[in-house]
Amino acid sequence: MFANGLARTLRGAAGSARTFTSTSAAQSKVAVLGAAGGIGQPLSLLLHGGPYVSELNCFDLAPVTPGVAADLSHINQPTKVSGFCGNEQLGDALKGCDVVVIPAGVPRKPGMTRDDLFNTNASIVRDLTAAVAENCPDAAILIISNPVNSTVPIAAKVLQKMGVYNPKKLFGVTTLDHTRARTFVSESQGWDPRSTRVNVVGGHAGITILPLLSQIEGGVNLTEEEISAMTHRIQFGGDEVVQAKAGGGSATLSMAAAGAEMTFQVLKALNGEEGIVECTFVESTVTEAKFFASPTKIGKDGVEEILPVGPMSPYEQDMFDKMMPDLLTQIAKGEAFVDEN
Q1: How far is CA 319 from CA 182, 212, 314, in A?
Q2: Can 177 be counted among the known catalytic residues?
Q3: What would be the CATH architecture of the domain defined by 175-340?
Q4: Confidence of residue 11 (pLDDT cuts 50, 70, 90)
Q5: Domain spans, the chain
Q6: Do residues 235 and 226 make contact, with C-beta atoms less than 8 angstroms apart?
Q7: Comparing C-alpha atoms, which of 55, 35, 67 is closest to residue 136?
Q8: Would residue 48 show up in a list of annotated catalytic residues for this protein?
Q9: Candidate list 48, 177, 178, 239, residue with the active-site label
Q10: 28-172 maps to which CATH number?
Q11: How confident is the model at residue 49 (pLDDT cuts 50, 70, 90)?
């Protein structure tokens, strides 16, 4: 993932001149808010030296944050890394940023749903989004903090109230659902997960996650029972990790990889690369839900076109109908939080 088209030429001993050539000639400044956390640290590591990332600002409330940045800065990549700690440094961390990625928040523990995280994470996303609005209002914002079905509407509402909302540049990161779908489906079919594509639509919590297995090119060799089991595993794959960590956390490494993948795709698009299509949770009119994840074309100005869900099997249509009330409720909950707080 680091390379991704980059060609690096180094010459001389340590400290001597270095020349870098790459397909990512343009420069972008990226901030990770929550960079010292379980997702934030591996996410920052993956973003460091990645395509189009010339500056990486690591922000967190934890006092270890400057150390995270110092640690990253020792890696032989051309990316400039800076650490910022505490709310008094939040503005400095955001000034001039082109992309802001927000993984900040508390992790899930056994027995917790993403919705259980709402009260704490809602306030965190609200306050961080307000800081983005004040310091880099034109930045693309990628929300990882759960519950995404509610935190993205929270961010949108905050940006609206502050007069800088651009729906083309607010993304809910649902990429982990696609990562799991590609992995689980390819395992069952004996395919290469790197070349397996599965559209996952809806939201990013439980039954609102709807993998469209019927749309996989060439079809899948699965019985109806296996399709149901596969769908459930993709929807609740996070529970596997929470349980396996036995109270020690939730999906951090896979979420960091998925978050970095989505960030790179957005950066490529913002810097002029064409043909970028990702499923992401954005303001949408393809369904009755104000926010919805479906295949989305991303360009240099952000969202270019939100593609339709496409044909679904009878099973998928039934799942779609069942998940919509939950999704609508979770969106409304996020918007109400901003109005009431």
Answers
A1: 19, 10, 9
A2: yes
A3: Alpha-Beta Complex (3.90)
A4: very low
A5: 28-172, 175-340
A6: no
A7: 55
A8: no
A9: 177
A10: 3.40.50.720
A11: confident
